[in-house]
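Researcher: We plan to redesign the surface later, but first we want a full-length starting point. Tokens attached.
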């Protein structure tokens, strides 16, 4: 996908803009809660934006004046075109940096000077299984980082509302991926009738990710709800407070 097409999809209509704004706001609140745990003079903040796309979250952090602008930003993105697009816009800001691969050893080496906060918004559903497990291990038992991870709900009423709603709004890419048959199976949580999940949305099960994270660290689960139904995103949060209680 080209950068211009990606940005267009992110801002397809009022609803998609609201969804992304909610995720950014959730991430901002999480970052602020992490900053509150630290003494202001203790460490500098480095926000690791894993799967950052064109780094629009950096723009949001700057505009919101998070931590009064005192933070470093490390975007992680595999697309060369997205990296080039983001660097064109933000590279002149000394707080901004971007890499294609995250090396957790480098994060560990800088731990004495930087408090790293790992943010990943709607990315883990796109990771290959083995890489996803490796990343979770690094966040948990290996490097013990605070994190916020959001993924889409691709099951039940949430999936049904999103697929049919997207079709009615003319956002056809989502429904083309599923079709009616797979929409029916996912609505009824019959993933056994669907092809195995790869790196797209179809067949993704947030409950599997919940189980995987649970193997390596404590976390909190947050469901975005409407009328009592988790429709949109599932968020996994592990704060420094949880880390400290885990260490006791």
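Model: Full-length starting sequence:
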């Amino acid at each position: 996908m080209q950068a211009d097409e990606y940005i267009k999809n992110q801002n397809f209509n009022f609803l998609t803009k609201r969804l992304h704004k909610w995720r950014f706001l959730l991430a901002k609140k999480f970052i602020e809660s992490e900053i509150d745990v630290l003494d202001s003079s203790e460490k500098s903040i480095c926000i690791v934006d894993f799967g950052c796309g064109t780094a629009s979250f950096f723009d949001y952090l700057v505009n919101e004046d998070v931590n009064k602008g005192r933070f470093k930003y490390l975007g992680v993105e595999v697309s060369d075109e997205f990296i080039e697009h983001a660097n064109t816009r933000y590279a002149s800001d000394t707080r901004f940096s971007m890499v294609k691969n995250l090396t957790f050893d480098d994060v560990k080496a800088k731990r004495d000077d930087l408090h790293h906060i790992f943010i990943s918004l709607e990315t883990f559903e796109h990771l290959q299984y083995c890489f996803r497990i490796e990343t979770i291990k690094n966040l948990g038992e290996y490097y013990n980082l605070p994190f916020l991870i959001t993924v889409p709900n691709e099951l039940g009423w949430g999936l049904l509302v999103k697929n049919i709603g997207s079709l009615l709004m003319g956002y056809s890419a989502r429904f083309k991926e599923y079709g009616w048959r797979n929409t029916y199976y996912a609505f009824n949580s019959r993933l056994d009738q669907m092809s195995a999940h790869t790196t797209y949305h179809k067949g993704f099960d947030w409950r599997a990710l919940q189980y995987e994270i649970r193997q390596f660290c404590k976390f909190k689960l947050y469901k975005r709800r409407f009328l009592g139904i988790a429709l949109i995103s599932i968020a996994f949060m592990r704060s420094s407070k949880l880390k400290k209680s885990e260490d006791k």
